[in-house]
Write a structure and sequence with these properties.
mainly alpha
Length: 314
């Protein structure tokens, strides 16, 4: 990963795979766009970008709590570019990429890897909290006899309590045969990171609400908002645990269609899932490209401002 040629090849492959995914979903995406209209499409894209940026802010919060503070530009370079690794089969490529990119900015690999592990645990737990909370707020989202699932929100919230979270993380790192955290997660850092993670899920949930409302011709209501947030959060969890699928492709869409089939036809639910996937992939590619441009300009400005050495070289 320190080789420039390897990095360029890695980036090229991830972008190519993401582009192929966009192309394969092109027909269904255009059908969904026709039902959405330009204004709703732009609004859904704004919520999608918000989700990615808030997730990056949550990762930055963890890293700062562990002792390394990165500016907005370096954070974007590490997180947004590194997460393109999720488009490769397997569940570790984005971690490897983020660790190596963070090393370019003076962050130790141990610390950046720890930050990514903490971030993943918090993101997954908050997704489950929101997903399960939906069943408590709108019990009829589940068939009769399964409402007890809503009670799972209590242990999930306990998991996010800093003393418990630190113990869980220590156990996870031990099982993965990784060094323990250099610093435990503070109460302030945990609440800040958790808040940002919840905000990111609410943002992408809003995207789902916009898509379901327009594609399914369903009026906006509290139930629809709860369903949108719940459905996407749980569908993402399904995609996340399907490690062999790049970025949860297929598994997430199947789960989302299943959850939305109660309020719209399976065909329209599939259109929602495809448009959501395309918007997220486009946001990932666009933000990563912007981060690369900003980092390239920053590096050039830094080199230009550096004084020449004794040999007249910069």
């Amino acid at each position: 990963m320190r080789s420039r040629a390897f990095r360029l090849g890695f980036l090229g492959i991830t972008v190519a795979l993401a582009a192929v995914a966009l192309a394969l979903d092109g027909r269904e995406f255009l059908l969904g766009v026709r039902r959405l209209g330009p204004a709703s499409l732009v609004l859904a894209l704004v919520f999608t970008v918000g989700n990615v940026l808030l997730s990056a802010a949550a990762w930055r919060s963890v890293l700062a709590d562990l002792g390394s503070r990165l500016g907005a530009g370096p954070t974007a370079h590490v997180f947004l570019v590194g997460q393109l690794g999720k488009y490769l089969p397997g569940s570790l490529w984005h971690v490897v990429a983020q660790v190596e990119l963070a090393a370019d900015h003076g962050v130790s690999r141990r610390r950046s890897a720890s930050a990514t592990v903490v971030h993943v645990v918090v993101v997954f737990a908050t997704a489950l909290v929101l997903g399960v909370s939906g069943f408590a707020l709108v019990p009829d989202l589940l068939p009769g006899g399964y409402s007890w699932v809503a009670l799972l929100v209590v242990p999930l919230l306990v998991l996010l309590w800093p003393p418990v979270l630190n113990r869980v993380l220590a156990r996870v790192l031990a099982l993965a045969r990784r060094p323990p955290l250099e610093h435990t997660i503070s109460h302030r850092g945990a609440w800040r990171t958790t808040g940002l993670a919840f905000a990111s899920w609410l943002s992408i949930g809003a995207q789902t609400v916009v898509l379901v409302s327009r594609v399914g011709d369903i009026g906006l209501s509290v139930r629809l908002v709860v369903l949108g947030v719940t459905a996407f959060a749980l569908a993402w969890c399904v995609g996340f645990v399907t490690v062999i699928s790049p970025a949860g492709a297929g598994a997430r869409e199947a789960a989302l269609v299943l959850m939305l089939s109660g309020v719209m036809s399976p065909g329209r639910a599939l259109l929602v899932a495809v448009v959501s996937r395309v918007l997220m992939t486009a946001a990932d590619l666009g933000l990563a490209g912007a981060a690369l441009v900003v980092e390239r300009r920053r590096s050039r400005a830094h080199r230009a401002a550096s004084p020449p050495d004794a040999g007249g070289r910069t």
